[in-house]
Design goal:
Largest sheet: 4 strands, parallel
Strand order of the largest sheet: 2-1-3-4
InterPro entries: LMW_PTPase, Ptyr_pPase, Ptyr_pPase_sf, Tyr_phospatase_low_mol_wt
Structural class: alpha/beta
Order of helices and strands: EHEHHEHEHH
Strand content: 5-15%
Number of helices: 6
Radius of gyration: 14 Å
CATH topology: Rossmann fold
GO molecular function: protein tyrosine phosphatase activity
Number of strands: 4
Distance between the termini: 12 Å
Helix content: 40-55%
CATH superfamily: Response regulator
Organism: Fervidicella metallireducens AeB
Keywords: Hydrolase, Protein phosphatase
CATH architecture: 3-Layer(aba) Sandwich
Number of domains: 1
CATH class: Alpha Beta
Oligomer: single chain
Mean pLDDT: 97
Family: Belongs to the low molecular weight phosphotyrosine protein phosphatase family.
Shape: globular
Length: 148
């Protein structure tokens, strides 16, 4: 299964989600392919400094992350597309309405309400809170996939 995480710039939330999910896949010896992209990403940007620091605290290395803009090819090549917010989901579906059966917010997909708030510009604690929210949602994600 190919899972794509989507946010705005692909330097904070989706980058951390990708790192957390890849670590989960590796630790559990799963075969899922994990990637991330941003609706307005600048190709080649690195993970934000605080995202990298918080991931390092969790034992996850995103120092080599390279931001990718969201493309039709990435969308078509993914089995599940998980956005960080309802607005991200709506933006994807506005351009690609045919993908409605595989685009969800991350929290929606795991049966929760709300969005993953953007930590951009926040201090380390804001990033930690975001990373912890992502970690719980991603654990729930893989539990749901396992059960289906």
């Amino acid at each position: 299964m190919k899972i794509l995480f989507v946010c705005t710039g692909n330097t904070c939330r989706s980058c951390m989600a990708e790192g957390i999910a890849k670590a989960y896949v590796e630790a559990n010896k799963l075969q899922h392919k994990i990637s991330s992209a941003g609706l307005y990403a600048f190709a080649g940007d690195s993970a934000s400094l605080n995202a990298a620091r918080v991931m390092e605290e969790m034992g996850i290395d995103v120092s080599c992350h390279i931001a990718k803009p969201l493309t039709k090819e990435l969308l078509n090549d993914s089995d599940i597309i998980l956005t960080m917010t309802k607005a991200h989901k709506e933006a994807v579906l506005k351009v690609y309405p045919s993908l409605h059966n595989k685009v969800f917010t991350l929290l929606e997909y795991v049966g929760k309400n709300g969005d993953i708030s953007d930590p951009f510009g926040g201090d380390l604690q804001v990033y930690r809170n975001c990373a912890n929210q992502l970690k719980i949602a991603i654990e729930n994600l893989f539990q749901k996939i396992k059960e289906s």
